[in-house]
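ok so i was messing around last nite and threw this chain in just to see what happens. nothing serious, just curious
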Amino acid sequence: MKTPLKIFLKQLNLLDAVFLNEDGKSFDGFISEVQKKIEIIKPNAYYVFNKQPLILFFDLTNENNNNREKEIHKQVWSFDNSPVIFILKNNEVKIYNALNYSKKEEKLEEIKLTEEERNNNFSFWQLQSGATWKWLQNEYFENRTKKQHRKRVNERLFENIKDVRKYLTSSVNSLTENQANSLILRLIFIRYLIDRKVKIDKEYISGELENVNERRKSFINLIKQPSKLNLLFEKLNEKFNGVLFKNLDISLNHSQSNDLANIFKGELEEENNLFKDFFFEIFDFSIIPVEVISGIYESLIDEETRKLDSAVYTPPFLVEYVLNDTVDKYLEKQNTSECKIFEVAVGSGIFLVQSLRKMIDKELELNPDLSPKEFSERIRKIAKGNLFGIDINEEALKVACFSIYIALLDYQNPKDIDIYEFPNLLNENLFKANFFDTSHKFNAVIKEEKPKFILGNPPWKKDKSKKHIDWVNTTKTYSKKINGKLEIAQSFLLRTKDFMNAETKSALIVTSTLFYNVSKTNKEFKNDFLSAYCINKFFDLSPVRRLVFNANKIVKKVDKNGNIKITKQKIVSPASIIYFSLSSEESHLKNIINHQSVKSNHFLKHFKILVIEKYDQKQILQKHFIENDWMFKLALYGNSLDYAFLLKLQNLKTLTVLDLIDNKTIFKGAGIERGENPKPYPELIGMPVIENKEITQSFFYLKNQKILKEEDVNLSRGRDINIFLGNKILFKEQNLNESEPLISYTSNDLVYRKGVFSITSKNDNLIKTLFSYFKSDLCTYYLFLISAAWGVGTRPAIRFNDEYLSLPYIEPNNEIRLILNSLVTEFLKPLTKYYKEDIKSESLPINEGLISKINNTINDLYEIEPYEKDLINYALNVSRYQFQESKQHLVSDFTYNDETHYRNRDTVLKGYANIYIKEFQEIYNDEYVQVEIYTLEHFIALNVVFSSEKPKEQITYPKNKKTEEEVLKRLANNLSISQITNTTDSSKNLFIQKDIKGFENNSFYIIKPNEYKCWHRAMAWYDIAEFKEAIQEAELNELNDDTQ
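result:
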């Protein structure tokens, strides 16, 4: 029977791509928490991508419950995992943005489309290719005119909690911050118990267990009775082992209690009313994970994060990623439901809570026939025997403990706190302690328990607390005694060893800068860390730092007139997850690191899906990371060919630019600096000074002069005056638009400030020669792949001595020097004229022809191979934009008109195909090679055909195969759409893995998305290497078969 939903799904060509309840189809790859929420929400069908239910379908055609649709809107918004829902009702189909709920309209934001627009935007191929999500991002998620009013459930909840706290701590109500925090959290957790149908004494919360609305009303009435509310707190304190409802003596007056009740009731909607933007009656705490509340509360009680404008806690999707690699894999292989976890810096306890759920799910699998009483006792023992952690903040530990209790209650039937006895965890499993306090009792407990996994997200800050620094100085990591601040996360990584044994595996989320910084102490840390452990996996999230941990810090500044100005200061931290175990003797030198990374994509930003593409997964020997400071950066943005190329450059047995600095004829240095202990530098008086923002790309002309006076030259660092005199190359440490080094030539005598450097000489020919090196594509490529911060952190982007001046320098002969000088002189002429003029043209007069000649000359000088030129081009045209969200079109979009444009589709595809022809024609010189290119809307296929007859054209675009089905059949008889677009297995999905390869009798093929980066010439070299390896393996197997 064809139902309305089936008919509609067929229109979208999604009938075979969704899981439809009426057909008995369900997806078994969800994590248990998502599966439970799906069972609560009850969609009739859902579309899954990378194990996430991205679209839910509801067929209300025969629905008699008038409240069902209202509940769907609330539940799906609280779910926050499915960005789009479809509702079929009364012969119409409505689409909603499930990430935004309008309290005024009592529903989700409607996505209004014509039938044609709907069927196009949500069709199978649009969804598969990501075009749908890109369109939604532009039209709804990123639309600035509407975004101000759009809030996801977590954002609303955080804002509401902060607003309630602000109200309670105002001068009128005069509660302390701690009192307000505790009161809010208690009220929210009682709502949690109600929404999750936990039985509470009817003397306080009346109503049937299943009637959530009736029990909510009873709770609101209870808030209006402060004395009785405190009695419930006392009862809950007893039942929850004094974890969350202890030691709070607050006497709310009548007005305060009524206001709090109305906040949770949410019915007062008058304009400018206190309660206007509160959503507590909308929030469904049976769906919102308890760890979200715990994380928000942790943000509010922590002194480091309470001033931020959004909650900063470990994102659940990141925790799930870590547990999938650790606890999940362990439980899958073992016939047990127990797995000891030690969480360092517990915070909200999210690792412990999620690990507990996985252990209980395993217990249900192993022993499904236990009685409710036996099961309750069993899971209590699992929690007590397997969950351990420490934190310096006792309040955070209490919240973590309570979260564990809520997780245990979720599995109880009935959920009755009068019956169920919770395990004692505080001071027995969860300890208030400093991680570096070696005398605290937690040390003996954890060592005795021998945890299977050590997990967590240690603090990201520099710290000089006594216990931390005292412990640091007991180690032999650093060559000198540490007295000042040190990144505490690197100490966490080293201290973890004290609690590990040969079987222990650790996985910690840390700031990426630990592995990129090139300071002496950081190098010593890296050497110690990489020698003490075998790194099983390094997952680098640095390119998406703005999408994972990102918030604004509210900063109050007082100007010179005494006015207070409130500003937002962006807090962006690059993150990495590092998995490691103890090294046995020299095993770390033979260990292979599984290096993975994520680049900017719309799936992560809005849907919290970690899409790891094939070329972002690498296997690298650990010793390479020990031997090369730049290895983490190269692993992030480069590949095996880049590694060989970089080694070639560094092994030229030649000088670096730094070696040229003799402080006689050529000087280098940093700009002047104000600071502590200043002293006069009278030789600078009368010299022109420029500000950093004045420096322009490629050429700087001093026009509007500001002269240094006597009062300006009292400086902490005044520098050698020689660096300010003569012809010079200026280098700005912060690169331009995150995309290119700002390097500028000037012949003016001038002083510059901190943040700018220069190489200076009165020998103009030498300066111009060096300028040509630094402006070359080879130099930009080199700097991008070795710089510690460019594409990873924020400031500084490129270090002067360690990075700029480390460029290998091949001494040119006189002829080449004259050519380079002449090219630079010609290049600078129009720029000199441009900057001297008062009225300027709209664009800089950059002569690309001269730039090309400079590049060709430099490439010849360094003997750059053709494939190395492709690597350089890929870094400059793809890699350096992969971490910039606003420039993703440069990474993915082809152009179609100008054939000379570097992203023109036909030009790019021909360049890619020509490498195949050249490489395979050399190998199979007794056959002819022809490449067929099929360009479809959502993917491109390339078929390499071998023939005994010479083809008319080596590259063809066959016109007789126009549909996806026809093209796939031409490539291989058994190739189907479902095989290349598996939505549940990422390894079989073209749009995640970015390629599908296969062999036939006289041909082989490759299919990739319609994206520029996938068809760049540099990618051809990697793809061909894979094909060659597969062919060689097949030939060896055939040879072995023949000899047997």
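not much to say yet. The longest helix spans residues 1017-1043.
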